[in-house]
Description:
- By secondary structure, the protein is α/β, with parallel strands linked by helices.
- It has one domain (38-200): Double Stranded RNA Binding Domain, CATH 3.30.160.
- The protein contains three helices and eleven strands.
- Strands 3, 6, 7, 8, 9 and 10 form a six-stranded mixed sheet that branches. It has a three-stranded mixed sheet with strand order 1-5-4, with helices on one face.
- Strand 8 (130-141) and strand 9 (147-154) form a beta hairpin.
- The longest helix is centred in the C-terminal third of the chain and has 30 residues, at 168-197.
Amino acid sequence: MTRIWMAGGAAALLTGCAALIHHGKYDPKAFAPWRIAQDKKIEGRALILSTARDDGLAYSGHPPGMAGVATSQVLPFGVIIREAAKRVLGDLFLGGADTSNDASHLEGYRAVVVPRFSDFVYRVRIFGTSQLDLSVHVALLDARGQAVFEQNYDSGWEDVPPQERADPTLIDRAAHVAAQRVMLQAAADVRDWLLAHSPLSGEPPRGAESPGPGAASP
Length: 218
């Protein structure tokens, strides 16, 4: 499998036989309609902090095996991960969430979260269920920009609907859901950390049914 890291509109040079290159795009409609239950939300506002390089990061490669030889996928994971983080944390925090590339203005936020792409693997099966797996490193920063909590999160294998003919747009959609699933895991830990270390008056104790795919409701 080939991995080429690139920013913006940089082109990927592929060796070997000609392959169909699918350029995936960020699509807010591709996320699952999960919502965090009202009684699991917490006070405050979150900031999703990234760099321009983070935002411009894209994956380019093809899955192993004969089924994947003819297709190469380009996925803008920088944007997908940032927007998945904003969607999930904006739902967790009653004050919503912002995104920024400016690390010099962190005041006014209860949580400053830095999600960064870690790894991605996918496998394609014609006439069967294809799968992909996304890993994201997430750090929670204090007001000085120092990490107080960080962890690598893995989506686990995300299924892509069976297809008679290869449809790379289904990979795009599954990648959005995988990023969303990862950020739900991270949101549960961010919530627990805040309730343990900086609870606000009237908030539930740490570990009170943290949000996650099982706690989210359509």
